[in-house]
Design a protein that fits this description.
CATH class of the largest domain in chain A: Mainly Alpha
Structural class of chain A: mainly alpha
Oligomer: homohexamer
Shape of chain A: elongated
Radius of gyration of chain A: 19 Å
Order of helices and strands of chain A: HHHHHHH
CATH superfamily of the largest domain in chain A: AhpD-like
Number of domains of chain A: 2
CATH topology of the largest domain in chain A: AhpD-like
Largest interface: A-B, 75 and 75 residues
CATH architecture of the largest domain in chain A: Up-down Bundle
Number of strands of chain A: 0
Number of helices of chain A: 7
Largest sheet of chain A: none
């Protein structure tokens, strides 16, 4: 049960309805999902989040699916229940195959393990890694 | 300063040297980085981690760069200093462009924000997300 | 379902009953909430937690509502389901308005985003920040 | 050492300079801090982050200091080194007293402890907390 | 509801069945738990995880119960619902007493508190701690 | 550099000196470590933390070393730099062998991996785990 009411289209204010209409149009879906209905309690956050999300997730140097996979990997690492479900579904909708999903899980799991080992031993960063990122950037 | 000694090739045991040789050969580098020198304190972990990492990171349904980007996204989310530096360098070495890196950072940052909002409001998962993942799987 | 039995007042030991009575008296509530019933499995933790919580949360240089908002912000960041619900309710009970709640969520969300960006790029701390905190302290 | 170059005003592009000028003007500071110099590698993120941060942090239902304290609490919980230093300094600059800072630390520390206890025992949420937040919202 | 189907023994592939049989034999249980049924979607991860888990968790310099307690402490800290339940049950099965469980919770809770305080104040590491770990290792 | 001054014994208030004296006496050390010098900025937190830490860490159903290992495992998972160094040193001081340390790291690393896999797939908890913990408790 949410800590805020989920605001349905029918009872939304005109400014919220406008964002909902845009989401439905852009995504070609009959209704917005609960994330947006919850954000609608704060129209400023709703508007800003929708606007930013479109900018960030639009295909660019990284394609749409790769961005969705990254979003999912972060959501798993942050233990966000809602986000894991919504971004797993979104990744499948954007073409993620079952094989890709299994490999994503394997990479995420392995990263957690080596992250813990590196942090646990406080391993000093190799000079060549520092030089490399400085150069590449 | 690490909590364990970093074991250099010259003083390593034969079983550690064998793993180090394999890493140097596969990656075509003159010396292994500190992560492996730290793991060398526990030859079993060293052997297992190297073996698993190769399996997990080899190109498959996801290509090598995408896997590296996912690894980096998880490492940032886990605040692992060593891993952030080493996997940023690795991603550049595998062809990540500066534009891709900037987009990765934007996606990771945005995911953190919406993860926090979703978790903070305890938004219930939409039935279609549950159905979608069940079907796709 | 909890990993421990929730101990109700009726079946509690005298020392647990004494803490429960104090909680009910101080908070003017008919029964303690599940957190305390769970802690009652370890009377030492129960006693210590209740005692410390009163000291920490009593109005001082920060007022009671501000402390509750901070508690909620940490609970969201730690993804603690029980704590998000209980401290959101507590904040409302202490006078948090819906507008304040929405602004808290916006700040928490934004902090997560810039935390991730700062950590991801390993940005070095500006000397003036170090000097400032040293001076102020 | 950052994974990106820190872009100084002198070498910045006109669009980055415009944002830097605005930050310096609004905050009345002679130079922007490293966070902005790092973001300047991606002018879109720079512009968006500065714009959103101003909206989110401007005094509203919560005053500027309370928002800064919340930002700091989240930054501590996320173990973000840069953010802890910059937001501790910012909170002092906005009037946080040493006594308030100590109480903030006490609340953050206590929240971490009870978050861990609640999560560890998987304590079920009391019905009155769910009802309370639904009603209040 | 899982994001993947849980694969039951009856419908599993021969290679999955072989791992399931080994788990059932080693643990002397009539059926594998859901973790393994979920991993069975990716036979490579299933095989590797089972193999590694046996190596890591077998009694060595640390006994089986101590390892299980450590696993539980990490699972609580990572807010992993499934893992908290499964490893609490496993610890009880390996002989954890109720008193030991309560002390584990107390230590985990206290560690979270002092972790937050230390991180929040960015306390510099004492030279003797660095020297000690270097020497001991 | 800490965000607070580290308060040395010579300049401490009488109440802080009393706690420092007790720490030095109980631990048989010539000076307290930086954690306590930082906490000394808030004598209430100092007193309470020292008092609680002694209660929590004293040998009971779990011995002193096992408690220290749990503390270290949590500190690694929370990425607390200071705590990783201080509790690694403390564990060695309490008798942790190098072999035990390596096994602890292996368990912590493996737990992180399976935590991520379980969270990522949202695996439902098996009924027998719920029944087991309810019964045992």
């Amino acid at each position: 049960m949410a800590t805020v009411p989920l605001i349905d289209y029918e009872v939304a204010s005109p400014e919220v309805k406008a964002v909902f209409d845009d989401i439905k149009h852009v995504r070609n879906i009959p209704d917005v999902n609960n994330f947006w209905k919850a954000l609608a309690n704060h129209p400023d956050i709703l508007q800003r989040t929708w606007s930013t999300l479109q900018e960030v997730m639009r295909p660019g140097a990284l394609d749409a699916l790769t961005k969705e996979l990254l979003y999912l990997a972060v959501s798993i690492t942050n233990s966000c229940d809602y986000c894991i479900h919504s971004h797993t579904a979104a990744a499948f909708a954007k073409g993620m195959t079952q094989a890709q999903y299994q490999e994503l899980l394997a990479v995420v799991g392995m990263a957690h393990q080596t992250n813990a080992l590196s942090t646990g031993m406080k391993i000093p960063v190799d000079p060549q890694f520092l030089a490399s990122t400085a150069k590449e950037s």
